[in-house]
Specification:
Radius of gyration: 23 Å
Number of strands: 10
Mean pLDDT: 93
Low-confidence stretches: 192-200
Strand order of the largest sheet: 1-5-2-4-3
Shape: globular
Helix content: 40-55%
Distance between the termini: 48 Å
Order of helices and strands: EEHHEEHHHHEHEEHHEEHHHHHE
Largest sheet: 5 strands, mixed
Structural class: alpha+beta
Oligomer: single chain
Strand content: 15-25%
């Protein structure tokens, strides 16, 4: 068991995250990992679902689950004084989930409804189409559940996933708040494993084939009664650990990562084509991507694509002004300080680091690279990775 400790002694509160690497990256069925984790709270071999909920409420504790592409987490929030009373219920969830057909049927019924609502929105349709075009349908980033998948998920698939992947061997525990050695001893004995920091992240994630579409621009009529169109553009980038990634994140922020960015200034403020537009970089093993997204009126969708590519080309052709670059650096520094401060939000940062095989020292080194970046560095990065011809664009209206 790997673990990370963030002491906050002047609080009675405690947060414990049970982090499992792999998640959707390892699943056999498009819904397997998500429901394997969400159904942990719906009854165990020792406690029915109603009793679990009642006992957690009695102690004022909450247990939440999250399932991402490359990792999943089970998070406990409680008062430190109640941890010994609450932990047996959490341990039972992790070790012996029931995965009853009745509870699964209820969850799948809700999932079908959510799927149908999501697929009536042009934004969701456009995002899925772009990811399929960028990564290919065989890659976890390009594989999305179909409505029929809700009919083929059965408890046996959840038990199989649990047996293979929700195990102490793939577990990291993140403890934040008011803890002591007695609490850590309980956690270690509860998992019945020894601390082992030697397992490399690369051994968990098998590299998946990427098949980017040769068609660089796609426009799809969704046949939905909409006046808005979704516009997405994206290109593949480097793994999170690559030394160019800090400068790419700086360039992405300058392009569309904050309210005063170039895309917002041009497409929203100057031309009035959208309420908001942003660019963001994924944080997944191997092939990352930069994605630019917005919604606009249907008649202006092609114009938005053209303006985005114009801004990308400008980033390649012209040196960024010193004042503009310094403003972006200041913005990113402030955002980093808020995100990385030793608070109850800090475990989310650690989860991303662990899932990509990095450490807090890497964050410090990356911030130094960003602060030392020059306009020539940004131009070099843009020319190498962000030229307009590298982007796939998708419109759904």
């Amino acid at each position: 068991m790997n673990y990370a400790l963030t002491p906050i002694p002047d609080t009675p509160l405690l947060r414990v995250d049970f982090l499992y690497l792999g998640s959707q990256w390892l699943q056999e069925h498009p819904l397997q990992a998500r429901y394997a984790f969400t159904q942990l709270k719906e009854g165990t071999a020792s406690y029915p679902a109603a009793e679990l909920a009642e006992r957690l409420d009695f102690y004022g504790a909450t247990v939440t689950t999250a399932c991402n592409l490359s990792y999943a987490s089970v998070t406990l929030h409680c008062l430190r004084k109640h941890f010994e009373s609450v932990f047996p219920y959490v341990r039972s969830m992790l070790a012996e989930p029931l995965y009853s057909q009745q509870q699964l049927d209820i969850a799948l019924s809700q999932g079908r409804t959510a799927w149908q609502i999501q697929h009536q929105k042009v934004d969701g349709l456009c995002k899925e189409e772009l990811y399929r075009r960028l990564f290919g349908g065989a890659h976890p980033m390009g594989c999305f559940p179909a409505l029929a998948d809700y009919d083929t998920l059965v408890p046996d698939l959840l038990h199989r996933y649990h047996h293979q992947h929700i195990q102490p061997s793939s577990l990291s525990v993140l403890v934040t708040g008011n803890y002591d050695d007695a609490l850590l001893d309980i956690l270690r004995s509860g998992q019945e494993v020894t601390v082992d920091d030697s397992t490399p992240v690369s051994s968990i994630y098998e590299q998946k084939p990427v098949q980017t579409s040769t068609e660089r621009h796609i426009s799809i009529d969704s046949h939905l009664p909409r006046v808005q169109a979704a516009v997405y553009l994206g290109c593949l980038l480097l793994p999170p650990s690559h030394p160019d990634m800090p400068l790419l994140r700086l360039a992405s922020t300058l392009l569309g990562g904050y309210f005063g960015s170039r895309l917002m200034s041009n497409i929203r403020e100057r031309r009035g084509l959208t309420y908001g537009i942003n660019s963001a970089i994924f944080n997944i093993p191997y092939d990352n991507a930069l994605v630019i997204a917005c919604e606009t009126s249907t008649q202006h969708a092609e114009e938005v694509v053209s303006e985005v590519k114009r801004e990308l080309q400008r980033l390649c052709d012209d040196l960024v002004g010193d004042d503009e670059l310094q403003m972006v650096k200041n913005y990113m520094e402030g955002k980093s300080c808020r995100r990385n401060e030793r608070s109850f939000n800090y475990p989310q940062v650690l989860m991303n680091l662990i899932a990509t095989g990095r450490t807090p020292d890497d964050l410090v080194a990356n911030r130094r690279r960003q602060q030392a970046a020059t306009p020539a560095d940004i131009q070099r990065i843009a020319r190498q990775y962000l030229s307009p011809e590298r982007f796939v664009s998708c419109i759904v209206c």
